[in-house]
Amino acid sequence: MSALSSRDWGNLSLCAIALAIAACLPWTAGAYGLSIGVTIAMYTALATSWALFSGPTHYISLASAAFFGVGTYVTGIGIQYLPYWTLLPIAGVAGAVMAALVGLATLRLSGVYFVIFTLGLAEFVRQIITWSQNISGTKGIYVLTSIGEMHIYWQLLGLAALVWLLGWLIGRSRLGFALRIIGDDEAVARHSGIDTARAKILLFMVPGAVAAITGAVLAPRYVYIEPSLAFSPMLSFQVVIMALLGGTGRLWGPLVGVIPFTFLWEAISVSFPNQTTLLLGVCFLVIVYLLPKGFVGLIDLANKRMRSAEGYV
Amino acid sequence: MDILITGLLLGGTYALIAMGLNLQYGMARIMNLANGEMLVAGGFVAFWFWTGSQISPLLTVFVVAPVAFLLNWLIYLIFLRPLVKRAKSRGQLEVDSILTTFGLSFVAVGLMLAFFGGDYFSYSYLSEPVHILGDTYGANRVAAFLAAVVICGLLWLWLNRSRAGMTIRAISVAPESARLVGIDVRRTAALAFALGGAVTATGGALISTFLTLDASTGVIFTLKALVIVIMGGVGDVRGTIVAALLLGLLETFVARLVDPGLTLAAAYLLFVVILLFRPQGLFGRPTT
Amino acid sequence: MKRRTFTRLAALALAAGVAGTPAIAQEVLKVGAVAPKTGPLAGGAAVSYWPNVKLWISDVNGRGGLKVGGKTYKLEAIEYDDQTNPGETIKAVQRLVDQDKAKIVLPPYSTGLNLAAAPIYARYGLPMITSTATTDKADALSAQFPNVFITLGGAKPVVQGVVDTMVKLRDRGDIGKKLAMVNVADAFGIELMNEAKPAFKKAGFDLVYETSYPLGTQDLSPVMKAAKAAAPDAFIAWSYPPDTFALTEQAIVEDLKVGAFFTAVATAFPAYAGRFRTGVEGVLGIGGVNADGEAFKTYAKRHEEVTGAKPDYWASAMVYSSFQVLEKSIEAVGSFDNAAIIKHIKANSFDTVIGPIKFDQHNNNPSFWTVGQWQGGVFKGVASTGRDGAVDVKKKAAWK
């Protein structure tokens, strides 16, 4: 790993400052602002970790809901026996192990089969959990804690920061290098001696763990956990859409997708409560047709134009 | 014995649900996530005709199918053709079509909510017993199964015997070479997409006789259809039929002999196992 | 279109109200409501929840408006769709209070969404009179969230009601002691099944067939075939809307001959009778109302006039009643002081469309309907925990 340049240090400290400002949100915004903050932090963590895997490998994973649901259940069941703080790492490990197993089984499938498989996974896990609840006679699970909205916000923010750090480290490591080659051409990567399967599985464990931790963090907010709410397939789709809206090519890509999307969603829910679904769909189409490469593409394009206007090109 | 017949009847239902998507995804290369909404819309029209003027759902399909065909043709022309034009690779088209049709499914749900409301719509049609080999089955399920047989049979014949059908298969197998031999790929793809939509809506009208639907249930059917299509092999009519029947038999078998609580889990397990051993699906060609 | 006719009706009603009491100034008061309009629970909310929001606001405005401390307010609804997603419910409640400045926020829909929103209602100190949540944890909940009230009861009393009804039928000789019982494998079905199994054993019934099936099962004929093969005297299903319809249809197809046929959620929906018509006669279901009572009859009539749809015979009236409790408490307190309103709700008894409601020390409404039966095209309450107007339960005749 190469030494950090002064530019890296500058970027790092900029990020740290931005994070510190974001962490002050509970004091500066009202409860409503904070709840939007929670949504943004949650989807930032999910979408960024999703893009870490899907960006270089081009595999579209719809498994976020499966890992997320497992995480909520770790908290839901574990909170009766263990202190809350031990649950987050447990959820992370559970998510990572599950992702590794899934990866071992499926990452040799090509694109679209992987999509459907991961979609089926959330359903499968949900059915298994419901069934075992039924057998063991567990009722709906209640998570009655004193954890407030702002604690959840800080945890999610911390998680998002961790994901960025991890992504940045991976980008600088041998694994990141290998992944870039895989992304360009998998055959070339294999021929140059890269264990592509191992690299992909390792990387897939990241979104798995992150989604599970996110679920574990959010469980106290849900209070009452049932499979149909914890494993809602909508979550997987939203993560994909936000990440793609932002752009998966850069580490900060998903963030610039999550923020506008969250506000758009809010604006529509507020102004047209009876036509929410319809208008969301319309916005969606507008995004796909007008922003095919996500915001990242748009920003890059603007940069290029500016540079050419200044005569660099 | 009755497990076998119940399973086959359910398999027929699944074939109805999945056949349209197979045409759209396999032939027109559009992974249509709004497929379930088309199904629910077909079901709603049947409900409306039946409760409004007592017109049998079996007749309604003759209205539903052409309307759905036209509607899907337009959807393809307006929304999807620009994507096909702009896509540089199959992967790019896949991502774009997932996003677009996901948006379209939202629009469809929103429109249905606005027009029909969010209430459950269900009605009773042919819910009388039919006796086959000493056991009783719902007449509406038997009717839907027979319709599925007819639809799948016609499709298969058409795809394999007629010129138009052959061209559709040609673009599914090798779009590039198809163009070389003078096939208008765009027009044919639009035809396949519209046909898929018509089949799906017809299926919706038929299954609404025994399933309870509401405006938001579409996604459940989309998922089931995707699973079946992938399992059978994309772009293969036989594959979809076999996969649908297999799934129906397995679910009924598990429900009767193991535990009804595990039916859906077993279905996904089958899906996973098939994908692990035959990633291209039962009848699919290996991807290169 | 519905919305427009509603506004027109409300305007008319308002005009009448204003004409009657011209001296009172009118101010607009925002009332927040958040529940599913899309997602898995949208179908149920469209039957039991949303029409009542419309009706209640139309009724209050129809009598002039909400009178609070000398002022009369015209009510105006702000409706949000939570997409059956607890995160959205929480956000919508915060939006209602922080951004829209809604003084009144009605409770959400369903057990899961109500409980998810409970902490946020508690933080704002809003009274939350839930009308669609069933829970046996009322004690723990009211200890943690003293602003939450439960009206729809829990699993234990519902099971007790069903057991009592079956015992009555058995003692009369209408059914034997062989019982088939199935449940949807979801929190609701699992909880009730687990309560019901020991309760029926204790009451001397034999469970000849029991099973569960996942939510979203497309074909329930294997379940019904197996149940029929066990030749039960009574069939009980702890089911959700789509499977309630599917099980009933399969029972008709298979011609299941039982003296008692019970299905849970959606049995009380008007669409149930609409689908099976004369076949519903004698079917037992969860819930019920005092269908012959004047209060319910006039309520049902207004419901149909204002919303264009019939109310269901269980949760609808309960939803409306919970709004009434809130309305009466606010008017009695004479301000929007939530702490005082909550105190008032705890301390008093309220006359509502389902009869009087008085909460116990755990904020639980102890008297509610548990079992109803379709008799002559109307779903009448046959068992309750202390409600008036129960009719005698009848033996289920053959399917028609």
Structure description:
The complex is a heterotrimer of chains A (313), B (288) and C (400). Chain A is 80% helix and 1% strand. Chain A is built from 15 helices and two strands. The model of chain A has no long low-confidence stretch (mean pLDDT 83). Chain B has 288 residues and is mainly α. A two-stranded antiparallel ribbon of chain B has the order 1-2. In chain B, helix 2 packs across helix 9, helix 5 (139-161) crosses helix 6 (163-173) and helix 9 (218-232) runs parallel beside helix 11 (263-277). The radius of gyration of chain B is 19 Å and the shape is globular. Chain C has 400 residues and is α/β, with parallel strands linked by helices. Helices cover 45% and strands 20% of the residues of chain C. Chain C is built from 14 helices and 15 strands. In chain C, strand 7, helix 8 (187-202) and strand 8 (206-213) form a beta-alpha-beta unit. In chain C, helix 7 (155-171) crosses helix 8 (187-202). Chains in contact: A-B, A-C, B-C. Chain B binds chain C through residues 2-3, 6, 9-10, 13, 109, 113, 117-124, 127-129, 135-139, 141, 210-212, 214-216, 220, 224, 248, 251-252, 255-256, 259-261, 263-265, and chain C through 2, 36-40, 42-43, 45-47, 50, 182, 185, 211-214, 216-219, 221-223, 225-226, 241-242, 245-246, 249-250, 252-255, 266, 269, 271, 274-277, 279, 309.
